[in-house]
Amino acid sequence: MGLLRSVVLAGGGTGGHIYPLLAFADAVKRHFPEVRITALGSPKGMENELIPPTGYDLRVIPAFQLPRSINLNLIRTPDRMWKSAHAAGKILDEVQADVVVGFGGYVSVPAYLAAWRRELPIVIHEVNVPPGVANRMGMRFTKNVAVGFPQQPQMAESLKDARVVGVPLRTSLTRLDRAALRPQALHHFGLRPDLPVLFVSGGSSGARTVNLAVAAAAKRLAHAGVQVLHVQGGRNDPFEVPNDLPVPYVVLPYLSDMQLGYAAADLMLCRGGAITVAETTALGVPAIYVPYPFSNQEQKRNAQPVVDAGGGVLVDNDDLTPEWIEQHLIPLARDRHRLAAMGQAASRYGRRDGDEALLQFVLEAVEKDR
Ligand SMILES: CC(=O)N[C@H]1[C@@H](OP(=O)(O)OP(=O)(O)OC[C@H]2O[C@@H](n3ccc(=O)[nH]c3=O)[C@H](O)[C@@H]2O)O[C@H](CO)[C@@H](O)[C@@H]1O
């Protein structure tokens, strides 16, 4: 591909920014093995744990925190922002970047600034409503905005002209046949094939309320014959689960092979992070969403359309108690027909081609903006 020789990807902080970046990098590599791929990260983000094992070139630039509201004066203000932009610019020059693709997170801002000063094409991928502060700033420098979900353009003025491309997901997920992998997944976790599996994950950092509520309901779940596969989350406190339960309750600190979790799951209990929602729907996993109650209610907006489509259930953070689990979650986990219908509705909403669609959009942008 003559137009594309070097791509710089920017996005960091939590898994929600990094996994789409990596999935997109894989798509670029698959189609254009010769293209140089560089990821920009910040010193403390999860990118430092997640990107090096993939073999992609991760360059860390100095971090700075943007205020929650933005205006153009901001560009004049913090020295640290320009220091970061300078560091990003040096990398763009060194790798002779043809395009910067940003996924949000603080590290995206210096990348957008540096690309803008060099008049390089910029593409922004945004999965939340309202868009994150970093991407909102980037939108001042480019009209090439892609979004993960069909409702986003109607929900935010700044996204009204965005292209809906879906969310780039890992190929271990986009190529997953859940039914085929299920026996291996159950065996892997030491779960039984004859009882339903509740898969609990609070997103890349974990969710304390979810963890504590499910752990407190461990006995009720076990006595109802519901097995639990509980991922605590990368940056969350441990919790206690009784060790004499009659059915398996498996606790893991973090799960890199999420395909095994999704293959084992009959029902998921999760937050409403955008990438999690993209994954559960792409894979047709029925889910109970417990949106994170802070950060602008963005997670409720992610999950609501899936629930409206019949693909899941919403419960408020404060309502997720052991009693709620007993009265609502357990009956659902034991109702195969309802789960099957929810799973089908979820997969009608989801899509698996976000990596390819974003690549197509980036190629068009590079062609147009050069
Ligand atoms: C509290 C907060 O502000 N959360 C935001 C953050 O969520 P967060 O970083 O939790 O991101 P998501 O829930 O969207 O995605 C989590 C990702 O981590 C993966 N995973 C998770 C656990 C695990 O053990 N293994 C694993 O691989 C999931 O498969 C998924 O790919 O970014 C999202 C995307 O911008 C936002 O929508 C969320 O609102």
From TrEMBL:
Start and end residues of each Glycosyltransferase family 28 N-terminal domain: 7-146
Keyword set, alphabetical order: Cell cycle, Cell division, Cell membrane, Cell shape, Cell wall biogenesis/degradation, Glycosyltransferase, Membrane, Peptidoglycan synthesis, Transferase
Upper taxonomic lineage: Bacteria, Bacillati, Actinomycetota, Actinomycetes, Micromonosporales
EC id: 2.4.1.227
PANTHER family: GLYCOSYLTRANSFERASE, UDP-N-ACETYLGLUCOSAMINE--N-ACETYLMURAMYL-(PENTAPEPTIDE) PYROPHOSPHORYL-UNDECAPRENOL N-ACETYLGLUCOSAMINE TRANSFERASE 1
Main localization category: membrane
Family affiliation: Belongs to the glycosyltransferase 28 family. MurG subfamily.
Pathway: Cell wall biogenesis; peptidoglycan biosynthesis
NCBIfam families from the UniProt entry: murG
Residues given in the record as UDP-N-acetyl-alpha-D-glucosamine binding sites: T14, G15, G16, N128, R170, S204, Q299
Gene: murG
Annotated CDD domains: GT28_MurG
Keyword flag Cell wall biogenesis/degradation: yes
Protein's name in the database: UDP-N-acetylglucosamine--N-acetylmuramyl-(pentapeptide) pyrophosphoryl-undecaprenol N-acetylglucosamine transferase
Listed SUPFAM superfamilies: UDP-Glycosyltransferase/glycogen phosphorylase
Function: Cell wall formation. Catalyzes the transfer of a GlcNAc subunit on undecaprenyl-pyrophosphoryl-MurNAc-pentapeptide (lipid intermediate I) to form undecaprenyl-pyrophosphoryl-MurNAc-(pentapeptide)GlcNAc (lipid intermediate II).
Enzyme class: transferase
